[in-house]
Write a structure and sequence with these properties.
The protein is mostly beta strands. It contains no helices and 15 strands. The protein is elongated.
Length: 224
């Protein structure tokens, strides 16, 4: 229902008519046939929407960040939330701190995010909603910092007189990482060979190997 701009503020009557062939045209006449219902309506003064500004994120780490905004309730009870995700569809929301605001002054609103993915760009917006309507403070982004890869060396397999297969796990922690094995007669190693695969990415453990040939028989090798 759209309230006419000429409507009087306060209690008034709303009449809804079901008519036939556009008759009657006057809601105050006896329709003769059809149906009408009356409702009491209280027309209030127009409410002022909240004012919301999304601010830059702070304390950004590999897996966490603090979202910031200012919200002015403009005299109407207003809830503050943040929407965030890896694109502008967001997908996740988090109550702001504080969550409920009143009054007519700018209030700093924050939210602490945890469990984020390293080396990832996130979109976020601050939102104020309540009797005054739903207002977005605009989209902003931040990028979590990168972690070094996590690596585990495993026992060698397929050991023969002159060959062996080196094995391990690498988690690139969402950054592209080159994989290689070092080996030699001491823990100074001295020889490097590419792993297979030689490049890994993503945020999960990936099994990597390197096949060595031309080794000396009956010899102990160090590797990592």
């Amino acid at each position: 229902i759209t309230i006419p701009s000429t409507a009087d503020i306060g209690a008034t009557r709303l009449r809804i008519i079901a008519s036939s062939n556009n008759f009657p045209t006057d809601p105050c006449n006896d329709p003769g046939y059809g149906n009408c219902c009356d409702f009491g309506v209280n027309i209030a003064e127009a409410l002022t929407s909240p004012s919301v500004v999304t601010l830059a994120a702070t304390s950004v780490t590999e897996v966490s960040a603090i979202l910031n905004s200012t919200v002015n309730a403009n005299g109407n009870p207003t809830h503050a939330v943040f929407n965030y995700g890896t694109d502008m569809s967001y997908g996740t929301n988090l109550p702001g701190n504080p969550w409920t605001l009143t009054g007519n002054s700018n209030t700093d609103v924050t939210a602490n995010l945890y469990g984020l993915t390293p080396n990832t760009t996130y979109h976020y917006e601050a939102v104020g909603y309540g009797a005054g309507g739903y207002v977005s403070g605009g989209d902003m982004t931040f990028t979590t910092t990168a972690l070094p890869p996590a690596v585990m060396t495993y026992s060698a397999t397929n050991i023969s007189g002159t060959s062996a297969t080196l094995t391990g796990d690498v988690n690139a922690n969402n950054s592209e990482s080159a994989v290689s094995f070092e080996y030699g007669l001491t823990d100074s190693y001295g020889t490097t060979v590419d792993g297979a695969p030689s490049i890994v990415s993503g945020y999960y453990n990936q099994y990597v190997i390197a096949d060595l040939t031309g080794l000396d028989m009956n010899t102990t090798y160090h590797y990592r």
